[in-house]
């Protein structure tokens, strides 16, 4: 390879950037996403040059989206010729991009992106490659920063494009488009040009063709300055993420799944947190747990930035900035019972806490009729066993939350398992007068989600036998005169 200063500098920068960000593993196989454009061609050439030094092997992949007529075929043929000359295996795939976009109701640009990255990932698995190398460069990252700034994506949007995202790596991220073109010119290498990049009918192209030239009139090094700022933001966010995660851990408590509470999504859930759940290993920011979560309002208000802490908890769960602001401004008024929903989650105000849980189907459990004794499947992981037992002098009724023992003499089949309804009343075990179930659950400090999910078991006369997982009805208690017991067990 020609040892001109331009070529040497370019190769050295890629080598240094790859080493600094630990992008390559010796003896690893890597796929080059090859479009035929200047960026991907330079990526293939420089990695081919470093292939032996890095101890890696390369294969290329080209996607034909059939969006530009003869140009699409020209690009494919160019990639075939280049890979043949460089002795690099090439994988080709053809997509009906318009059909995919119509089927999934997305833009052509989004369809092409989805198809491309899904194919790359499947190919990576099929050929046991380590990662996929894409040719994003510094100017792409600058455009991303400006786009995110306009969209208002928050601090993380100001990082721009990262060197690694899962199995996608970007070895050219420290290079400008101008450096890439100079490198190819010094090598005497050709490349193809996508004519759609020359029109400003796409947001990114408007940034590239209109906004960045204006910024360079103010500062000729505007792109470099923005890129360097994004690198500083990336480093600062490491400190920020650590601090915000400690704030999140301080204000949130996962709600433990047990058989002592209300049925939620096929599992009985208790609102009582455990000490261990407060000290459990922290989750990565942005994860979406499938279990309910409580947020302490008092501890939230003690954080250095309560509103941003709340944003970091709720935003990954689909809540918009406007919703989060509404929730935050409502903390002082404490509208207990109020529910705000996102596309995936529900949040309820509950006294001094916020209760957050994934959305669940309504009703959570369909009413189930139980005509006789036996075992009944409530969900994939929950069953109700109904059986009778003879009572002797030493009979011991159940005293656990997941099992109830009742006097069978006055219970009429069929039984019905259902959610509580407005006006439901029962006689709590150990009492003589009736009580509204809603009042009983309030006294038990159940939150609105637990109330909504609470199940009851009734007999043929619609009398409540058991507030499931909570308390039996005193009218059907076991007495010294009980001859036969009805035993109900959640398994």
Q: Short summary of the structure?
A:
The chain has 491 residues and is an alpha+beta fold. It is 38% helix and 22% strand.
Describe this structure in words.
The protein is α+β, with helices and mostly antiparallel strands and about 500 residues long. The chain is built from 15 helices and 24 strands. It has three domains: about 5-220, HUPs (Rossmann fold, 3-Layer(aba) Sandwich), CATH 3.40.50; about 255-360, no CATH class; about 370-490, Phenylalanyl-tRNA Synthetase, Chain B, domain 3 (3-Layer(bba) Sandwich). Strands 3-2-1-4-6-5 form a six-stranded mixed beta sheet, with helices on both faces. The chain has a five-stranded antiparallel beta sheet with strand order 7-10-13-12-11. Strand 8 and strand 9 form a beta hairpin. Helix 4 (about 95-105) crosses helix 5. The radius of gyration is 32 Å and the shape is elongated. The chain starts with a helix and ends with a strand.
């Amino acid at each position: 390879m020609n040892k001109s200063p331009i070529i040497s500098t370019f190769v050295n920068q890629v080598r240094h950037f790859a080493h600094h960000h630990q992008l390559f593993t010796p003896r690893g196989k890597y796929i080059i996403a090859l479009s035929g454009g200047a960026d991907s061609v330079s990526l293939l050439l420089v990695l081919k040059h470093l292939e032996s030094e890095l101890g890696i092997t390369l294969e290329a992949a080209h996607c034909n989206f059939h969006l530009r007529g003869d140009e699409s075929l020209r690009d494919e043929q160019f990639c075939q010729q280049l890979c043949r000359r460089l002795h690099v295996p090439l994988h080709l795939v053809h997509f009906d991009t318009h059909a995919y976009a119509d089927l999934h109701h997305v833009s052509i640009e989004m369809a092409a992106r989805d198809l491309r990255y899904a194919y790359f990932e499947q190919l990576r698995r099929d050929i046991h490659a380590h990662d996929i190398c894409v040719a994003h460069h510094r100017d792409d990252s600058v455009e991303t920063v400006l786009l995110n700034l306009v969209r208002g994506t928050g601090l993380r949007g100001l990082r721009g494009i990262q060197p690694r995202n899962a199995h996608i790596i970007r070895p050219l991220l420290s290079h400008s488009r101008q450096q890439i073109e100079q490198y190819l010119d010094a090598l005497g290498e050709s490349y193809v040009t996508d004519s759609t990049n020359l029109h400003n009918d796409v947001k990114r192209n408007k940034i590239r063709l209109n906004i960045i030239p204006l910024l360079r009139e103010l500062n000729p090094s505007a792109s470099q300055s923005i890129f360097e700022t994004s690198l500083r933001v990336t480093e600062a966010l490491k400190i920020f993420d650590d601090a915000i995660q400690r704030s999140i851990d301080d204000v949130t408590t996962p709600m433990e799944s047990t058989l002592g509470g209300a049925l939620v999504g096929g599992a009985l859930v208790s609102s009582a947190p455990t000490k261990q759940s407060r000290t459990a290993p922290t989750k990565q920011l942005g994860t979406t747990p499938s279990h309910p979560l409580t947020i302490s309002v008092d501890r939230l208000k003690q954080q250095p930035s309560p509103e941003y802490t709340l944003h970091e908890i709720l935003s990954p769960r689909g809540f918009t900035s406007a919703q989060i602001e509404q929730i935050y401004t409502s903390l002082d008024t404490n509208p207990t019972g109020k529910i705000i929903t996102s596309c995936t989650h529900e949040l309820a105000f509950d006294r001094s806490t916020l209760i957050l849980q994934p959305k669940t189907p309504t009703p959570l459990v369909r009413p189930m009729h139980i005509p006789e004794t036996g075992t009944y499947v409530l969900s994939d992981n929950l069953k109700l066993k109904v059986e009778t037992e003879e009572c002797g002098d030493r009979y011991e009724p159940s005293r656990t939350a997941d099992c109830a023992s009742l006097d069978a003499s006055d219970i009429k089949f069929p039984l019905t398992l259902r959610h509580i309804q407005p006006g439901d009343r029962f006689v709590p075990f150990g009492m003589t007068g009736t009580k509204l179930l809603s009042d009983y659950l309030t006294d038990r400090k159940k939150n609105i989600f637990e109330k909504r999910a609470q199940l009851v078991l009734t007999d043929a006369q619609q009398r409540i036998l058991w507030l499931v997982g909570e308390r039996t009805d005193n009218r059907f208690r076991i007495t010294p005169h009980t001859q036969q017991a009805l035993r109900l067990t959640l398994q």
